[in-house]
C-alpha cells in the first residue's frame, strides 16, 4: 500500500500525532504501516521474542525500551522471525544490532541506534498497554504510518480499505 506521510499530514492534520524526529531507519522496507501492538520493557527482549513468534497480520510492534542505549532489543534472528510471521514493522525506543543483515530484510524498523550487546532474558515487561515516547501516545489498535519523512499515529485508518 503506497502512501506518503507528508500527504497524510496535509489531509488529516487534525487526526494525527507526529513523532519527534530522532529514530533511525533500518530494514529494507522504508515505508510501512499497520495497527499497533505495544510492548513496554527495559533491557529485556523476552516479550518481544515471544510476540514475534505469533502471526503479525501486517501489524506494527511499538516497543518502549525506555530509551536505553546500553543493549540491543532486536537482532537479525528476531527480525527474520518478524518477516517470516508477517509483521509490517517495528518502532523501538531503544537499540538494535546486526543492522547490516537487517537492512537486507523486507521489514521496516525504526530505532534509536545500534549496540552490539544483546539484552537480558528475564521475561519482564508489559504488553498492549498505552505507552508514550517521542511526544506521542501509542495505544494498542491505533494505526502507525512510517516512511522516509517521519512517523504518524492515528486512532483510525487514514487509508482507503
SSE diagram, text form:
Elements: H1 5-12, E1 16-18, E2 24-26, E3 32-40, H2 46-52, E4 60-64, E5 72-74, H3 76-84, E6 89-96, H4 99-102, E7 108-114, E8 126-127, E9 131-133, E10 136-138, E11 143-147, E12 150-154
Parallel strand pairs: 3-4, 4-6, 5-6, 6-7
Antiparallel strand pairs: 1-12, 2-7, 3-8, 3-11, 9-10, 11-12
What fraction of residues sit in β-strands?
A: 25-35%
Radius of gyration, Cα only, in angstroms?
14 Å
Count of helices?
4
**Name given to the CATH homologous superfamily:** Ribonuclease E inhibitor RraA/RraA-like
What value does the average pLDDT take? 97
CATH architecture: 3-Layer(bba) Sandwich
The count of domains is 1
Q: Which structural class do the helices and strands define?
A: alpha/beta
Helix-residue proportion: 10-25%
- Tell me the overall shape: globular
- Biggest sheet record: 10 strands, mixed
What would you say this structure looks like, in words?
The chain is α/β, with parallel strands linked by helices and 161 residues long. It has one domain (5-154): 3-Layer(bba) Sandwich (Glucose Oxidase, domain 1). It contains 4 helices and 12 strands. The chain has helices at residues 5-12, 46-52, 76-84, 99-102, and strands at residues 16-18, 24-26, 32-40, 60-64, 72-74, 89-96, 108-114, 126-127, 131-133, 136-138, 143-147, 150-154. The strands form 2 sheets. Strands 1, 2, 3, 4, 5, 6, 7, 8, 11 and 12 form a 10-stranded mixed sheet that branches. A two-stranded antiparallel sheet has the order 9-10. Strand 6 (89-96), helix 4 (99-102) and strand 7 form a beta-alpha-beta unit. The chain is globular. The mean pLDDT is 97.
Amino acid at each position: 500500500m503506497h502512501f506518503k506521510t507528508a500527504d497524510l499530514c496535509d489531509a488529516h492534520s487534525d487526526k494525527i500525532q507526529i513523532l519527534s524526529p530522532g529514530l533511525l531507519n533500518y530494514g529494507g522496507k522504508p515505508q510501512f504501516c499497520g495497527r499497533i501492538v505495544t510492548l513496554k520493557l527495559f533491557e529485556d527482549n523476552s516479550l518481544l521474542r515471544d510476540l514475534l513468534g505469533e502471526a503479525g497480520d501486517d501489524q506494527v510492534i511499538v516497543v518502549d525500551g525506555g530509551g536505553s542505549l546500553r543493549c540491543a532489543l532486536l537482532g537479525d534472528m528476531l527480525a527474520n522471525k518478524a518477516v517470516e510471521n508477517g509483521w509490517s514493522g517495528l518502532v523501538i525506543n531503544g537499540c538494535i544490532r546486526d543492522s547490516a543483515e537487517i537492512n537486507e530484510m523486507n521489514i521496516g524498523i525504526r530505532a534509536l541506534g545500534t549496540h552490539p550487546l544483546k539484552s537480558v532474558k528475564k521475561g519482564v515487561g508489559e504488553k498492549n498497554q498505552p505507552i508514550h515516547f517521542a511526544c506521542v501516545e501509542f495505544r494498542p489498535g491505533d494505526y502507525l504510518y512510517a516512511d522516509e519523512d517521519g512517523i504518524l499515529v492515528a486512532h483510525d485508518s487514514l487509508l482507503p480499505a
